[in-house]
Amino acid sequence: MFLSMRSDRVTQADRRARSRNALLESAARGLSRYGYGNLVLEQVATDAGYTRGALYHQFKDKQDLTLAVLEWILQTWTEEVGVLVEKESEPVAALLALARGHAVFCRRDIARVAVALRLEFSGQDHVIGRAVEDAYELLVKRCVRLINAGRKAGAIPPGPPTRSLALAFLGAFEGAVIALDGQAPHDELLAARAAAGVLGLDPLTATRRP
């Protein structure tokens, strides 16, 4: 009997996790297509295959759901892109792995959420906008650390202030990814070349596979 009750609890937890992930993915698609202001929770639930009641059982309101989506996307990005960066011991290789990995990550609908929300809440003092900017700032700081390490090692030439270079680096490969939407595998290669050029490296040499 004890084992049966334990099994039931695990099953309920699994069901809750599955429904939460389905709702998060559905909300991410909705946010990327329609933005926060036009997101309809009932449609999010329907698209995920659940009722509106099931959604409210997991999330308090649209703001709570959107914050959860942002956290989920950041975690997913870390698991899929962040690990690629951590595997590289050389700063330049890590930066280019970030650009390539981000390009691959952005082939999925959910990757557009942060960009869509950043544009929607630009210039506004809103909890969603602040959450997006906080996440972006973490990425900027990560790039600043890698660029500083690359300059110290002599792999990245001196030039503009590190933070300015980090912002330009992010803008270069993000812009390439947006412009090349749906054009895999060229999006990955050209995002890396754009990033290498901003760093002051030879794009062809820096992005050549061993």
Automatic annotation (TrEMBL):
Q: Which SUPFAM superfamilies match?
A: Homeodomain-like (SSF46689), Tetracyclin repressor-like, C-terminal domain (SSF48498)
Q: Which GO terms describe its molecular function?
A: DNA binding
Q: Decide whether keyword Transcription is in the record.
A: yes
Tell me the DNA-binding residue spans.
40-59
HTH tetR-type domain residues: 17-77
State whether keyword DNA-binding applies: yes
Assigned keywords, A-Z: DNA-binding, Transcription, Transcription regulation
Highest taxon of the lineage: Bacteria
PANTHER family xrefs: HTH-TYPE TRANSCRIPTIONAL REGULATOR YJDC, TRANSCRIPTIONAL REGULATORY PROTEIN
- This one is known as TetR family transcriptional regulator
